[in-house]
Structures are given as structure tokens and as C-alpha cells.
Amino acid sequence: MNRMQSRDVFLVENYLAPISGRRHIIKTLLERLNVPRIYFVNSSSASMLACGGDTGIVVDVGYREIRVVPVCYGAVQNFAIKYRPGGHVAIRKRIVEQIPKLKELGSDELDRFLRTVCTVRINKETESKEEEEKDATIEFETKSGVVITVPESSRWKPCEVLFEKDQDGEDFVTIFLDAVMHCPVDVRALVVQNVIVLGGVVAAFPNMAQRMETELKRASSKTHPEHLLAVSCVQKSLRIRRSVLFPADHVAWTGASILASSENPKLLNGIRSVTKESYNDGLDVPDEFSLLK
Prior knowledge:
Blueprint: E1 9-13, H1 19-32, E2 37-42, H2 43-50, E3 56-61, E4 65-72, E5 75-76, E6 82-85, H3 88-98, H4 107-117, H5 129-133, E7 137-141, E8 147-151, H6 153-156, H7 172-181, H8 188-191, E9 195-199, H9 208-218, H10 228-237, E10 240-241, H11 251-261, E11 272-275, H12 276-280
């Protein structure tokens, strides 16, 4: 505990994290643990740093939604962030509908099932009727010894929910192109050259990055006439990272660790901080649009 009093703390958080939680963390760390300074690091900026750059797009496949976050020179482009429903919850719901026996599994066991069994079709349109007819099966054994037979199609069909249109008529391609269009004109071609797919269980599914690239490359001026400039950038410059040196759910933490070990933590644009002195002087907690450095 004494070592905390001589070390700065780096807090990695998502965009628009509740400021009430931030206030509670600041109070605990500065008042009770007496840390000298707290740095607030956006998880998308940290992820980009961990992958060797400061400009690109982070596609975060989360628990309840898919988030597309453009980052330019270390700073998150707040007005270009786009969301859509989907992610872990949607896939779990879809696969339980196809295999009712999975309802008997606990949350951890169901996640192990997803990691072990699920995959993503690179191009669903190439599936032929013959492949459907000769559908194979695999077996998954739970920790209690129960064997669940899984049709081959049930391994990839639940993942299609990530690429279907939602109730607003938007799909993954639409929100990605929309995010690119909301970036400054001079960086659009740069951000699409460095697209990183992150998240938890779902982001680690085999072929996830390849399928996203296939969907984006299929976009054209006819299918998305309102995103002509973004479509042009994607067709010419798109590059999606298919792998990183560490698990997809550890990338933000790794980036923050790199930042903490550097001599100048503020080398990443958009870093905000609070010192114990400024906190004692009554300085308010910084929000997403604060210019505090």
C-alpha cells in the first residue's frame, strides 16, 4: 500500500464512461490511497498504441453492441463513433434458440461452448445446397460429462446476427462507412489502413476479421450511395488486422501498460489527468470533452 503513494495510476475506460464512477474512483485513489496522479486513458487509444500505431479504427465487438471508434493521432474522434446492437448477447440468444439443450448450461460453461465451437463464415453467399445437405455434426462435452451434438451449420449461423440489418435498417457495413464519413477528410484514407478488431469471446472467433473485410469490400456506390467517399477509401486502402500478439480482450490493458512505462505518458493525444494537489484545490472531474492535460 505504501508503494501506491509514489506511483501514478493509469485508468483505462471506455468512451462516455459514467462520470459518477469516475468520481468514486478518484476519491478512493486520491483520498484513501494517496496516489500522486491519475491518468485517464481511452481504451480505443490504448488499443491502437498496443498495435503499433496512433491512427486507425477500432472495431470493438462487445457484450451488447458493436462499436466503431476512429482514432486520429492518438485522439478519439468523438463525433465519429458509431454503435449498433449485437455482440455477445445476440449470439448467445441465437445459438440457444437453435440448440435448446444449451439453456441448461451456466454462463461460464456457455462461454466455453462459444469459444470451442463457434466460427464465422468468411463468405456466406458461397455456401451451396450440397454443403447444407451433407451437414456434419461435432460433439461438445460439458464439465459435468454431458455430450451435446452440434450441427455444423449451428457453429456459424448464430454469428450471422452480427452482419444482419437491425430495426433501423443499419448493419455493420453501414455504421463503419458512416464512422469514416464523420472523420476529417484528410484522415479518412489513413484510418481505414489500420482497422483493429477487439473484444471478448466473440472477437476471437475464427475468421471474424476476414468476414468483416469481405463485407466491407463488397460495399459499392450502388449499395451505399450516401457514403461514396467512404466506399472509395475502403476499396482502395482497407486493411484489417487479422491477429495481434496478445488476446483481443487484453489489448487495451497492454496499451496502457506501454504508456505507463514511457517517460512521457502524455505522448498520446487526449490523455487527461488529475493530481492530488488539483483535487484538493477543488478541481472538477474531467469529462470526455475536457481540455485538461
